[in-house]
Amino acid sequence: MSEPKILVALDYNDKKEALALVEQLNPKLCGLKVGKEMFTLFGPDFVKELVAKGYNVFLDLKFHDIPNTVAKACQAAAKLGVWMINVHASGGRVMMEKAREALEHEENKPLLIAVTMLTSMNEQVFSELGYQRGLAEQVAHLAQMSRDSGLDGVVCSSWEAKQLKQQCGKDFKLITPGIRPEGSDKGDQSRIMTPSQALNAGSDYLVIGRPITQANNPYQALCDISDSIVSHL
Ligand SMILES: O=C(O)c1cc(=O)[nH]c(=O)n1[C@@H]1O[C@H](COP(=O)(O)O)[C@@H](O)[C@H]1O
Predict the structure, then answer these.
(1) ipTM of predicted complex
(2) Packing angle of the helix pair 135-148, 93-103 (nearest 10 deg)
């Protein structure tokens, strides 16, 4: 069975609300992403609760620290039984290599991916950061460094997916947030595509939050998105 391509971002401040949606879902339909808000509020036990339900759980804490700290955080995350964890590629090559090495002896080896440039970044915001390269070039540079460090993939926007597939190879996983069905509110996302466009561009997994969680009927919103990409499955 191919793994579900949709990862629902459970960005809730209410555990009951999150679990009410999860109860309507199933692990064949989607994976679940737990980010900084729910992890801060409800901690590792909430993550373990979702893992126990049989979901692919993506723990999105974007570890970015000195190599030793990130390596230990990755080991702690692996012990929760999660399917995927992320670090920030801007932490550098040594940090990413130490993170990968730290997982080698773990019983549960989650996919280890690196965040390149946040999908909320546009050229204007990016230019204030003072990088020499352009935004797309910086994403490509960080993706190559992540690949060379032995990571399993990157978080990037769907705008970079085609280029990164050519550059890093088909097995290097591309996880793309900034997914918006036609007509849905961009919010603070900048580099967006529809689910189908993103998969056509080469995305392996679609991270989708508010278009689902803030819909009037989140389950129906997920089903509609799932139906819209059925030709890609
Ligand atoms: O690592 C992430 O998941 C992430 C990286 C990135 O570049 N952009 C991004 O939006 N995300 C996360 O993906 C989710 C997107 O949520 P929505 O904008 O509501 O669909 C949020 O939980 C973000 O924290």
Answers:
(1) 0.99
(2) 40
Query: Per the confidence metrics, is the pTM higher than 0.90?
Result: yes
Nearest-angstrom CA–CA distance, 16 and 21: 9
Q: Is the CB of 196 under 6 A from ligand 1?
A: no
**Catalytic position from the list 53, 62, 162, 165:** 62
Residues in the annotated binding site for substrate: 11, 33, 60-69, 119, 180, 189, 209-210
CA distance 87 to 61: 7
Give the domain ranges of the chain: 6-232
> Which DSSP symbol is given to 115?
E
**Bridge partners, residue 176, by sequence:** 206
Burial class (CB in 10 A: 0-12, 13-18, 19+), 219: middle
Q: Considering the domain delimited by 6-232, tell me its CATH architecture.
A: Alpha-Beta Barrel (3.20)
User: Quick one: CA dihedral 90, 91, 95, 96, positive or negative?
Assistant: negative
For 111-135, letters b (16+ CB in 10 Å) and e give bbbbbbbbbebeeeebeeeeeeeeb
Q: How many CB atoms lie within 10 A of CB 59?
A: 27
Interval 58-87: pLDDT, tens: 999 999 999 999 999 999 999 999 999 999
Tens of pLDDT, residues 1-29: 579 999 999 999 999 999 999 999 999 99
Write the pLDDT tens digit of every residue in 112-139.
999 999 999 999 999 999 999 999 999 9
